Amino acid sequence: MSFNLAIMLRESALERPDKTAIIAGGTTISYAELDALSGRFAASLVAAGYPRGASIGVQLPNVPQFLIAYFGILKAGMTMVPLNPLLMAPEVSYHLQDSDAVGLVTWEGFAPEAAKGAAAVSGMTTPGMTTPGMTTYVVSAPGSDARPEGTASFLELLTAEDDGDICPTSADDTAVLLYTSGTTGRPKGAMLTHFQLFMNCTVAGGLFEVRDDDVTLAVLPLFHVFGLSSVLNIAIRFGGTLSLVPRFDPKAVLDAIERDRATVFLGVPTMFFALLAEDIVGRDLSSLRIAVSGGAAIPGEVIRGWEEKYGVIILEGYGLSESASTATFNVSAQERKMLSIGKRIWGVEVRIVDDQDQPLPPGPNNVGELLLRGHNITKGYYQKPAETEEAFRGGWFHTGDLGYQDDEDFLFIVDRKKDLIIRGGYNVYPREVEEVLYAHPAVAEAAVIGRPDERLGEEVMAFVSLQPGASTTPDEVIVYCKEQMAAYKYPREVRIIDELPKGPTGKILKKDVAP
User: Fold this and answer.
1) Are strands 264-267 and 241-244 parallel, antiparallel or unpaired?
2) Which among 52, 136, 137, 270 could bridge 151 via Cys, Cβ 3.0 to 4.6 Å?
């Protein structure tokens, strides 16, 4: 079966050519323009000698060129490798080498590191290429052409006149090679196919009833699976408009909602928390109709505070890079449970199993690993057969997340399997402790980890940052927690720090919190 994900853009362009596809500050791009630009990008790649199936790295923030490159690579029958713009040269080099990438598109501000990383693999050649070596194409800011020596301008990939053809790829061809966060080792490239990405955005978009008159705020990084699949793909699939915000800043987000009359906002918990602290008096945010949270567990206190302040419901979902984003979802205000990640989406099977991969019955006392199977699950890790076999043992994808299912099929994530703290033989789930910490009036953010302990094996330890103007002491926080939970659960050590380390989406990085 021939199927190319770029057909989403082509169909929307045919149906509504003059409709605005992208708003980026003071610039707008219509569907017809985006279709034509990405077509010229595809033709330019082919003319430059890049063969069908080649991998091209894209290291861009949320700018129009990201979409042009994304759909251009797909149209050319090639594979896109999204990269975090903040990667340093050795990290860039690792991703390019591991993915067998033969080209790189980057942003002017990141170009020096990107070029150094690409130079380390510049001797690579790919069969079928007429021009061997690695070329780094730089997107320059308006009015600038500052780029490292030896790099090329992004504009060179817009020179071809042919802008009409879409390569007839197989539905099972890899469209995107998306690298996992690497919290348990070196990042691995999850191979996501044209069909998987199409099905995920189609099913997920239908769940919160995306319309063609929606304006979706795109502040989640588009190089991350949440931003790529749940923001970009859904908006283009349903013919809506994307309002691009290159970097999360609460005031910039609120300005964009007002200016562009945004109706849909997707974010991670830290974004909702930051917006909760903003003064919105005098702002007209009435266009916003739905908010979606993912990427990490959102505290109940944040959900309640947001919905009271903004008058907009937050629907929480769950997914991973390996599931092309959404795997479970709370579909509506009428059918949701607070702190639940909802129910499985159409076409996805879920299972909670014990350490022997045996299914567990429903109930909060039956916590096990969450397994997934369905149309949206990666076909494996690129050139890593052993890791793929381990992750897919028994025909199910092992997420590494611990949770349970209730009698109504709602799923609850308790914690990451690797984050589980075993204190004196008792299981302590960090998320449960964090929920208590978030309810403390002085606490802004919290991360709970286990530190080695000679007597107990592990001890519970918490890192917290405080609300602006608030004050408390570690001892006061410990006493507060002691009053709220069983003796084996509350943290024996609390450290108050200015800010918790975060990843590109704003997710708190526990691996970077040192005990």
Assistant:
1) unpaired
2) 136
